[in-house]
Amino acid sequence: MFSPLMMNTWIAASVVAVIAGLTGFFAVLRGSTFAAHAIPNGAFAGAAGASLLGINVIWGLVVFAVGGALGIGFLGEGRGRTGRTDVVTALALVVMLGLGGLFVSISTQYAEETYALLFGEVFGVSRGELLPILGLGVASAAAIGLAFRPLMLTSALPEVAEARGVSTRRADIYFLLVMALATSMTVPVVGALLMFSLMIGPAAAARSVTPRPGTALALSVMIALATVWLSIALSYQTNWPLGFFVGSIGAAFYLIGLTARGLGDRRIRSA
Q: Which residue from 63, 29, 31 is spatially nearest to 45, judged by alpha carbons?
């Protein structure tokens, strides 16, 4: 499990977990969970197209993820009017999934490639895939760090942010682009369908435990790391699909968080 051949797996999965924990925290805080679902699944089309052309799937992911994020950001009307934003997000998802279906249908080796793109292939991460994942991971973390205060302010107190001259719309678009970068590096490892669970599960669990943003952010990253590490270990030992453990453990952490919050509230009421 810790052989040299597995080192790429552990490194890539750890980077993916950290970025998923960071972006997932802001996605939950900003109420952007639908976009967190749509962008990874829609970006699958870019990966399928890149695979069809014989180029690195990460670059196809980048193009479609960024394109989807920009479409949602510019055609939607921000979080203040969620109705139109949800419609635009859904339409972007439908269009990209339709293109993905087209690319897969004309591919001669779609079965294995499609399974890997949808559910991930963490045990098959090569050095050629690891370097782009590391680069995009650093870029995503740096983007969040550079705009941490505006993102936090527009996420928690959008009205105060507007009063201080911080554009919530620009922050929305900026965050969607960060999510697109995170999606581009994580889909080859976790898969388009499971990226949503890794991004939202730990963040939701962290938010249910503590209302403090800084503590919740750190806890989100730690839960994401624990989810990925446990999933790899269990999948390696049982030969069961990694995705099963990612989804199950993420849901378990969220249920534990809800239980802990319920017990805490009960203690406060009885005190």
A: 63
Looking at residue 80, its pLDDT comes to 47
Under 8 Å between Cβ of 61 and 118: no
Which among 233, 224, 198 has a CA at the least distance from the CA of 6?
233
CA distance to 111, 120, 248, per residue, from 191 (Å): 14, 4, 15
Token pair recorded at residue 24: 């997932």
Rounded alpha-carbon distances, angstroms, from residue 39 to 68, 94, 109, 191: 6, 11, 24, 12
Distances (CA, A) of 67 to 72, 175, 223: 9, 14, 30
- pLDDT by residue (tens digit) across 87-116? 888 888 888 878 877 887 776 655 566 666
Q: Which of 5, 7, 21, 4 is nearest to 186 (CA)?
A: 21
User: What per-residue confidence (pLDDT) applies to 215?
Assistant: 92
Residue that the structure tokens 């419609």 belong to: 87
Ranges under pLDDT 50 in the chain: 80-81
User: What does the pLDDT read at residue 98?
Assistant: 84
Q: Do 224 and 18 touch, CB atoms closer than 8 A?
A: yes
Q: Strand, coil or helix: what is 121? A: coil
Residue type, 170: R
pTM of the model: 0.82
What letter does residue 191 receive in the DSSP assignment? -
- Domains annotated for the chain, with CATH where assigned, are 4-195 (1.10.3470.10)
